[in-house]
Amino acid sequence: MNKTLIKKNQLNNKGFSLIELIVVIAIMMVLVGVASFGIGMLSGKNAQKACAKMMTNLERTRTISMGKSNVSLNFYVTDSGIYTKETVNGVVGDPVLLGPQDVTCSCKVGSTVYNLAAGDSLTIVFDRSDGSLKSIYDEKNTAYLYLAGTTSSNNIDFTFTKASKSYNLIIVPATGRVSK
């Protein structure tokens, strides 16, 4: 009876072929790739990149201005995304895409929050003598959000948001320093 049972188990003990295993592993890899892409899109990666690019552009503009060049950074929102454009000594540079249309941005000056939408444009200028923030001018409403000497604000906060993830960028007006 023992021999019969052993023989019966050996006949029914078929495994997977190598091809079947490779197909299953390939399908699993595709599913993991799709899932990680979806999680990346939901996690706000575009907002994080937009914040990092804005920080780089602000630091670059501040550095160029302290080199005694006349420079300004135009920050604007369109239907296709958020952009910056640098103007050095009257020469306008190419637009730089900070983030696509699914990224939103707000600017907080003092206790006032400005939610930026398509058509909004801010011009940021640093002081040539010490690199401090000189002004932030709202092109659409033709008004200064910040003007050195007249606006009291400890920090200027830019917030980039996608889904439920937000990334902040802080400008200290007195020094012009930019940090996250």
Counted by DSSP, the helix tally is 3
- What structural class do helix, strand and pairing data support? alpha+beta
Q: Residue ranges: pLDDT <50 for 5 or more in a row? A: none
For the largest beta-sheet, the strand count, sense and barrel status come to:
7 strands, antiparallel
Count the E strands. Answer: 12
In CATH, the architecture of the largest domain is 3-Layer(bab) Sandwich
Distance between the termini: 76 Å
Shape: elongated
Q: Could you name the CATH class of the largest domain?
A: Alpha Beta
List the helices and strands and how they pair.
Blueprint: H1 2-12, H2 18-42, H3 45-66, E1 71-78, E2 81-88, E3 91-92, E4 96-100, E5 104-109, E6 112-116, E7 121-126, E8 133-138, E9 143-147, E10 156-162, E11 165-171, E12 178-179
Antiparallel strand pairs: 1-2, 1-7, 2-3, 2-4, 5-6, 5-10, 7-8, 8-9, 10-11, 11-12
